[in-house]
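Run log // design_07
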């Protein structure tokens, strides 16, 4: 059983109508721990930076559009471009946002190895994308060129400590479509510095509590759906049972500094008049 076909099956069915798509986003926001981390970092950055003018944002690998939707709802001054290599996702997102009358968002089909807009963005967000791209150095260089001075690149990606849940034998694991089994902190920091970033902060997410939460919210339910779609009728009862534990686990993971974890949250800055850090 593989995670991605089940994920696409759920997306296809939830994204048929605007109200079910919003419900799908709400489910992702609540149950996916990475959204807890990303949302907090975006809110924190907005408070600390205190932007006074229009903020241009790139959602690099926008997928289903849930992060674009979150930013559009919470930050009225942000103008957002969502790009993705999958045309069907781009078309679906564009149709959804048009139906809501949101005009501060544009979606564009693009390959991140070729996409570059010189000094165009204050913020670039890339969530669970880099593990799918072989030529990551080129993408990091494009991100650097596309950021304005003092801009922020915020990345979430699996770590090399089991983030892709790859089988030890080298067989395909629970999560497919990955070209690497995750980054080490050293590897991704060195690659970002090589691309030009002068300040890179990296920390682990999905420590022990987060990893257990992921297994309860994603791996076990998806494994059941992989056996039979009939399990979709039982999932509401299952989640009602484990919901209190999931909330506690996510809160702990969000607020504890982990010595290791299966996820990495990376903040890289394009500073001016600073020598690169090594």
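design_07 sequence
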């Amino acid at each position: 059983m593989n995670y991605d076909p089940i994920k696409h099956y759920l997306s296809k069915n939830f994204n048929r109508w605007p109200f079910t798509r919003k419900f799908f986003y709400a489910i992702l926001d609540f149950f996916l721990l990475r959204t807890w981390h990303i949302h907090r970092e975006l809110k924190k950055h907005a408070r600390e930076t205190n932007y006074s003018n229009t903020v241009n944002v790139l959602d690099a690998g926008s997928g289903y559009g849930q992060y674009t939707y979150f930013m559009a709802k919470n930050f009225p001054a942000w103008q957002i471009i969502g790009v993705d290599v999958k045309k069907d996702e781009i078309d679906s997102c564009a149709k959804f946002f048009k139906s809501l009358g949101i005009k501060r968002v544009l979606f564009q089909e693009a390959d991140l190895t070729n996409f570059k807009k010189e000094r165009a963005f204050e913020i670039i967000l890339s969530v669970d994308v880099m593990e799918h791209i072989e030529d990551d150095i080129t993408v990091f260089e494009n991100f650097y060129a596309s950021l304005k001075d003092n801009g922020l690149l915020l990345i979430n990606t699996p770590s090399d400590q089991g983030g892709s849940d790859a089988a030890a034998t080298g067989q395909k694991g629970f999560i497919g479509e990955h070209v690497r089994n995750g980054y080490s902190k050293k590897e991704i920091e060195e690659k970002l510095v090589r691309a030009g970033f002068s300040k890179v902060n990296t920390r682990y997410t999905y420590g022990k509590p987060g990893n257990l939460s992921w297994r309860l919210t994603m791996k076990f339910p998806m494994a059941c759906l992989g056996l039979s779609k009939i399990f979709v009728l039982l999932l509401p009862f299952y989640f009602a049972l484990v919901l209190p534990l999931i909330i506690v686990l996510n809160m702990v993971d969000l607020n504890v500094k982990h010595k290791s974890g299966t996820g990495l949250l990376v903040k890289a800055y394009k500073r001016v008049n600073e020598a690169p850090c090594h």
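Residues 235-255 form the longest helix (21 residues).
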